[in-house]
């Protein structure tokens, strides 16, 4: 069937609408990724080598991946548990609508609050001379840092990451909770199920793909974060993004190709996480249709 000139012009106009996005993705995502992957398999002279990949398995770099993964898992678990409870209270807890609107607005802002501002906020709040630290010391006689707590540590960075992980979880899981049908609860209750049995045997199995997908997404979100960690801890906590920054920026650790290999390793971890998330998300959407 012959396509009219007007139809061709309309399709061309439609493609022009997405052209800026495609150009942006090509310039700032696809091309840089290909450049990093190519550089990971080259030496300083541009020759093919596997040395950079082999060097990823040295103790120092494996330790960086280990601590990054552990921080990502810890902050993702905290984000999922607390974020799910907040979302449940908003959607199913019977709170006033204005409370939900205020919380969702805050979550939209807080989920993107990171980097230097977030690091400064936590230093001002939980640093050695932070507001909460001083209040606990002067009003309750509790020396927070004498208990072993340190903001510039694994626990401190995990707590800082949870500031944006929790609101992100609320935004992710709220649509899944809204998709829970009243008929499912009524059917369970008509068969004699208690409130706990309904959640354990009906609601949670349905929500499990969404919860697991949210966990994976939160893991990937914190695994690639660098601005907050570097602003808060400097180089005292040797996570992968900071190790990558040290290799590329040109100091004594300068080895750009090893940095490319580190970036390649991060791409692999993040890609696996995203594939798992997409798979679980597709499965979760079957129940929401």
UniProtKB/TrEMBL annotation:
InterPro entries, per the entry: MetI-like, MetI-like_sf
Segments forming domain ABC transmembrane type-1: 65-277
Pfam family, one: BPD_transp_1
PROSITE patterns: ABC_TM1
Primary localization class, coarse: membrane
Example GO BP: transmembrane transport
Sorted UniProt keywords: Cell membrane, Membrane, Transmembrane, Transmembrane helix, Transport
Transmembrane segments: 12-37, 67-91, 103-131, 151-177, 198-220, 226-246, 258-280
Membrane topology: Multi-pass membrane protein
Gene Ontology terms: cellular component: plasma membrane
Locations listed in the record: Cell membrane
PANTHER family in the cross-refs: INNER MEMBRANE ABC TRANSPORTER PERMEASE PROTEIN YDCU-RELATED (PTHR42929:SF1), INNER MEMBRANE ABC TRANSPORTER PERMEASE PROTEIN YDCU-RELATED-RELATED (PTHR42929)
Family of this protein: Belongs to the binding-protein-dependent transport system permease family. CysTW subfamily.
Designated name of the protein: Acriflavin resistance protein
């Amino acid at each position: 069937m012959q396509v009219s000139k007007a139809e061709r012009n309309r399709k061309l106009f439609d493609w022009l609408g997405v052209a800026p996005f495609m150009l942006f993705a090509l310039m700032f995502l696809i091309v840089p990724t290909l450049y990093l992957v190519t550089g990971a398999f080259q030496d300083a002279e541009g020759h093919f080598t596997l040395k950079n990949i082999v060097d990823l398995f040295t103790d120092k770099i494996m330790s960086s991946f280990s601590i990054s993964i552990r921080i990502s898992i810890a902050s993702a678990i905290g984000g999922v548990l607390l974020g799910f409870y907040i979302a449940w209270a908003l959607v199913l807890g019977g709170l006033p609508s204005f409370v939900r609107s205020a919380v969702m607005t805050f979550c939209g802002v807080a989920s993107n609050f990171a980097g230097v501002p977030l690091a400064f906020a936590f230093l001002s709040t939980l640093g050695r001379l932070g507001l909460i630290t001083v209040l606990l010391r002067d009003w309750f006689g509790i020396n927070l840092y004498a208990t072993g707590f340190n903001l510039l540590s694994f626990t401190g960075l995990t707590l800082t990451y949870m500031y944006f992980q929790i609101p992100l979880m609320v935004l992710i899981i709220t649509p899944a909770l809204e998709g829970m049908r009243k008929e499912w609860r009524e059917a369970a209750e008509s068969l004699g199920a208690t409130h706990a049995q309904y959640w354990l045997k009906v609601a949670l199995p349905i929500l499990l793909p969404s919860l697991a997908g949210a966990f994976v997404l939160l893991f990937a979100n914190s695994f690639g974060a660098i601005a907050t960690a570097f602003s808060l801890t400097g180089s005292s906590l040797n996570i992968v993004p900071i190790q990558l920054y040290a290799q590329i920026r040109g100091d004594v650790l300068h080895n750009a190709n090893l940095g490319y290999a580190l970036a390649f390793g991060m791409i692999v971890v993040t890609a696996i996480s995203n594939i798992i998330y997409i798979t679980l998300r597709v499965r979760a959407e079957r129940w929401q249709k």
